[in-house]
Structure formats: C-alpha cells, structure tokens
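Example record for the data management plan.
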Amino acid sequence: MVSPQVLTLATSAGLGETLPEGFAAVSIEAEGATPLLSVCVVVRTGPAPKGVADDGPLLILRERLDARCYLGCVVDSLARVKRWVEIWVQDTDGLADVPPAYRDAMSNASLDARWRKWCETIEATGLAEGLVHAGWEQQHPTSILIDLKELRSIRPVEGGSNGYWLLCEDDGLLTSRGLPAYGSTSHRYLHVPALGAETFFIPVTRGAPSGERCLGAEEALGLGPTRIALNLSAGLMMVSDWVGVSLEDHIDALGGEKTVASSKSAGGPAKARSAESSAVFDSGVGRGFLTVGRAGRLLETMYLKLRLLLDIVGSVRAAVEASGAPILNLTPSSFAVCRPVGAPGMPSAWFVQAALRDAGVGVGVELAGGDSKLFMGPGGPASVYSPGATGSTVAGVGALRIRQILTDADGLVLEARLVMQERAVLGPGDLLWLRVSVGGTRLDLYATPDLKKAAAGTEVPLRTIKQPFSDTIRDKLKAAEGVNIPGVMFEALPMAGTPHDLYSLAVLGVRILLCGDRALGLAASDFQDFARLLEDAAASEEEGKRTPLEKRISTILEGSDAESARWRDALGPHHLRLEDWDPKSALSVVTVDVWSKILAALVRALPGLGPDSTCKNFSEAPPKAPERVFDPLAAEILPLVVRTRSMVVSDSGSNSEIRSLIRRVAKA
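Corresponding structural encoding:
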C-alpha cells in the first residue's frame, strides 16, 4: 500500500523538477563524494499534510517481507530533480512474523542471491530505463542513517577506532562469539572490521540473539528523533525508476473512472482524480483514446484492457523464467504502469506499458529423496487473488491406508487415505509431509490431498509426489497395500507453484475486464460461479464428445431464458466501462464470438476446476520450465488483441479489395 503522504505529494503538489515546501531530498551517496548527479531519499521536513496520518519522515511506497521501498530522486548540482526513483532497501525483519516452516527455508545467503537475481530481472524486463546502478545491488553498503536536522546521510563509525560499522558476513567470527552464522540464518549483525577479533557486534534484526560483546543499536549509533535509519542492517539496495501510476488507477482510467480504485474496491470513499489521470485519459483523438463514439470507446477499451492483460502475463512469465520460482502474491500492487507521452496526434493510452515490479515470496523446498522442488508461500491475510490460504499449518498423528502403489523406472507413487483424529481444513495449495514406518524403516513422504474426493474432514485421499526408493523399500511398501498403518506423523506445508500465479492472473483478468462499474468481490464471485457451471456441464458429457468451452459460453450468452439474461448481466462486456450500457447492446457491439473467447481464456486459467482447466491442480507445472504454465493463456489472448485492434482500426484498403473480389466472384 502506498503511503498516504506519497499520494498527497503526487496528486496535490505534483512531482516536477523541484520538491514542494515541507519536503527535502537527502543525498545517500558516500560521504565525500561529489557526483554530477546524486541519488537522494525524499524526507518530510514539516508536519504531515492535513488529514493524512503521519507515517514518519521517510515516504514509504511499498513493503515486502524482505524489503521496504522509499520514494527517492536523482538530483543535479543545482538540486533540480532529474529523475524520480524507488529506493529498495533489504530488510529481513518481516520474516519474524511468518510461519516457522517458511522462515526456516530462508537464509541470508538465499535472500542475497534472490535479491541479486531480482535486480538482474528488473534490468532485463523492467519499465523505462530500469535500474540506476549504484553498486548496492550486488555488494552490501555500510549502514545508512539520515540526520533530519542537518538533512544529510551518515555512515556511522565506532568512536574508539573510527572504523565503519559494516555487516558481518564472517560465519566463523560470529559463531566463535556464540552468535548465529550469517549464511545459514536470517539474523544480521554489524561489526567493526578495524577492531579485528576484538570487535563489538550490533544485532540489527528483530529477535537476533545477543552476546557478551553486543551493543544496542540506539546507543551505539545514536539513533533518536532526529537521527533515523534508512538501512540499519546494511542490506542490499536497489534504485529503479518510480513510475508513479498504480495498475488499479490505470484500469479504472481505461474504464472511464477517475477515482482511486483501491478505495472503491475496499469499500472506502472515492478519492479525487489525479491531474495526470484526467489529462492523459480524457477521451478524444490525440489524448487518451483514439475513438470518440460510444460504441467505439467500448471496443477500444476492450482492446486496451486485453493488451494490458497480455503485458501482465508476459511480465510474470519473464520473471518466473528468470528466477525459476513462482511469485505467489500477485495483486495489482505487484505491477507498475508507465504512461509515456505519445507522438503528436496519437492516443497516449496506446503507448502504456505494464510490468511486474515485486520479486514475489515463493521459497523453494527440496523434497527429500527426490529431485522434485516445490515452493512455499508465507501465508498472510486472505486475498481474492489467492486460491486459498497458503500459510496455515495443520499437524498431528493419524493412520495411513495405502490403496495402491504405482511404480516406474523413475520412482514410486502412493495412492492412499490419511485418517486424522480431528477435523482439519486443508487448502488447495497444501502439501502433506508424512513420516511413515514400514517394515521397520522410517520414510518421509510428500503428498497432495484430493479435497474433492474427501469423504469427511478427518479422512483425506492423497497421492504422493514421485520419489526414488530402493527395491527393498518398494517391496516393503508393496506388502503394506491395504494395511492401516497407525502412528503416522503428518504436517500440512503451505506449498504452491506457478498454477497459483495462473489463478491470480485469471482474477486479475476479471479485475481488468469486468469491474468497470462494480467492485471486484462481486465480479469474482459471479465469475467463479459461472466457471463451475460450465465445468459441471462439461463433466456431464462423454469424454471426447464434449461441447467446446467457447460454444458452451456463447450458447448461454445468446439464450432467451432468465438464466441467460442473468449471466449476460453478470459477465457481459458492458462491465468494461463506467457507462450506462444495456447488456445485450454491449454484447452486440463486442460480438458474442469475441466475448466468449475472452471468458473462455479466463476460465481455462483457473487450475483444478475441471476438464477445461490448463492445470489440473495447483502443483502441476513443468519442473524445469515452470513459466510454461502461462503460455496457453498468452496464446489465447494474443489473437484476441490482434482481432480487437482491427475492430477499432479497420483497414479500409483491404476491405475495398475484399468487396471487389466478392463482386467479381458473384458476377462469375
């Protein structure tokens, strides 16, 4: 969530070449440096704007579990702002609040590697010019403090030696003092290399154990009301362009809404439209849109929104391909939108770019005894963009009954039932860890529950992930078929994969295409009900003779009964814009064929729904190319983008040639 102070600064005062009164730019370059251009963090020097909560002198743009993002700028020697930027600072304090299983899968070594990889991804796939290279992307800077009285940054030093406080990455030195190692934990300490083995340590992460030579950060660094920390733990940093336009705002601007979307979707009061939104997206040739007529605006909005969705899918695919891990927390706030100024006479809305700007939260977990790798999310508050809770933990002791064992040269799979002593709620992305004793041998198995076939809350059908076992173990398991094995320890690990992200993209598609005049909760609920109706109809048909999904949708949309009228009203193209359209009239403009294909693409993106789903469950993804999960959705959207563009801008020359050809053939 963007700081209210940032919204006020951006929408009321505007962000140009100079900062408005009450704000200042503080250079965070190393002391003594005199560059032509300087990277600065923006601080508030006066009272908080009227009616806005005071959330501190630093303006927070976004927060992640492992990072915090501040508003910054690049200024020249005359203090003129040449570029507005985001200053990302690695901060692992957020990991203290996540489930232990997720936290245990993280370490400073993996966090640093993840950060460096994400910086490379931003550079390759980001908007505008990408990164402002400062060297902090790959190497840890010194700890950085901000002196609010003198408006300067400070690299703190230890008084006795005058040596800088630096991040301690020496595992041997830390463990020799009884402190947690850097590489294998998420705890961090500052030390003074100039003091050698006699150095002091400052714990700079929440919950970090203290030792004999440890000092408190406030006392050692002089922290207080006028001296605050920008990067206390000397984490890696990244400086990238601040686009300043949220995806929510852009979607609503395309639909004719000039209010802040996050307020509307949350049920809060609508905020005043920004000057940029009204200037760029007012209808008219050479402004936001190409077309002027009502029907033309509807078609153009459909084209621009489909192209936006294609941008988003492609951006997620590129990020997953680069990192090898799913995102697992996709929402509109994960994306930034760039609205460059178009060429004279061209609509600026046609030049918009959207790209993923957050690294995601997926953490890889290697499965014991196999080469498979699944991913875990940290959980958190429920979200309409998530298929289910991915942070809840269910654990206990139960009995396992093996129904059958499937084997091949690569490994072994068990189909079984787990009987628990108490009812438990499992999510669609959960992975069950099982510790089973068979023939005197203890085995660790991993399985996905089949929630659709669960007879009761205490009995769950499951299928294990394929793992290689010796012939001896295979024989012991084979002998246990049909036997109730008591005393089986189990734990539900919140696992997920790229199908989880595919689900989020489907809901983002609903947000983009079906929420021009209503809240997302209602639209998402209608869409889910509609998708289940379609899949129930498909399941009742004989396999191999099923009616194509697009045909099932078009039959409903074109029907004359009350049920068809209900679905036209709930999911028709009149929801593309905030205009008073009759569902039938809007559908006639867009055409049933095009709209049926659009809805079909989103339905297929819902994993585990039925025979039409691209992914049969939330863990099904190519292990060495998880990004391919997104390819079918992109392949369906791309021709729709091309087709809808031709509906907005037709080729009159080609149309004349076609008409001439038809006349010649008719005469013949």
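Summary line stored alongside the record: The two ends are 67 Å apart (CA to CA).
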